[in-house]
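Per your request, structure below.
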């Protein structure tokens, strides 16, 4: 049997099996706070196969986001305030109170991506505590995407830098940082366009992680079925030969 024909049949069978078994990645994007919610909406609008977008916030407006899942959390802690007032420890406490379902979401995933605009209560304390929980309670590959506030936002910037030091000191995991100050270095660029450019870059990171995860799943799937696949291809080819000979007669 010519090798190229075997490879062609093998690839057709492989594609059919992947479709039959529904081989798609299960990537969860967890967005913390109001700023990250906007990023989450942008990513959701791009429709990446296998990616589920979840937003967490103490602000009721989280329910207005056009994404897969909206989690309005902290009501039992904040009462009528509905705001952490930038208190990192409050954000940490609220995230810890929600850890059961966060762990469940992570364990039902092939990869988890945390997105946070650092500087606020949930966007700082919430994501930091979640990184601690996931490191301690799950083995799911996790990456964080952080957005630093502008330097002129002195208090928020300081809280953000402290948060990054905490992530490094506690070795909480892999992360990427997008600095809002880079928008100011581009002359004549409207702020809205600057944010959109950043959202596109963050989307690119999420898409790449989804593609890498999908490729890893497909490799594992192929390894499980590859030995029998060679036999199936040979049998299929013999069937084709027999059919052609029968027609010739």
């Amino acid at each position: 049997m010519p090798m190229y024909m075997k490879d062609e049949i093998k690839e057709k069978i492989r594609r059919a099996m992947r479709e039959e078994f529904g081989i798609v990645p299960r990537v969860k994007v967890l967005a913390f706070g109001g700023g990250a919610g906007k990023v989450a909406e942008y990513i959701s609008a791009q429709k990446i196969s296998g990616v589920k977008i979840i937003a967490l916030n103490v602000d009721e407006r989280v329910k207005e986001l056009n994404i897969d899942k909206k989690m309005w959390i902290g009501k039992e802690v904040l009462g009528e305030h509905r705001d952490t007032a930038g208190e990192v420890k409050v954000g940490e406490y609220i995230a810890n109170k929600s850890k059961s379902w966060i762990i469940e979401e992570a364990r039902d995933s092939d990869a988890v991506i945390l997105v946070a605009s650092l500087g606020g209560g949930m966007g700082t304390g919430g994501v930091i505590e979640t990184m601690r929980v996931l490191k301690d309670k799950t083995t799911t590959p996790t990456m964080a995407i952080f957005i630093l506030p502008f330097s002129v936002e002195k208090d928020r910037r300081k809280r953000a830098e402290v948060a990054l030091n905490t992530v490094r000191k506690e070795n909480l995991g892999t992360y990427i940082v997008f600095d809002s100050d880079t928008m100011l270095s581009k002359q004549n660029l409207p702020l809205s366009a600057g944010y959109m450019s950043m959202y596109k870059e963050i989307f690119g990171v999420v898409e790449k992680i989804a593609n890498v995860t999908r490729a890893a799943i497909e490799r594992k799937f192929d390894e499980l079925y590859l030995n029998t696949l060679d036999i199936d291809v040979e049998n299929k080819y013999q069937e084709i030969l027999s059919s052609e000979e029968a027609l010739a007669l």
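The chain is about 60% helix and 15% strand.

Regards,
D.
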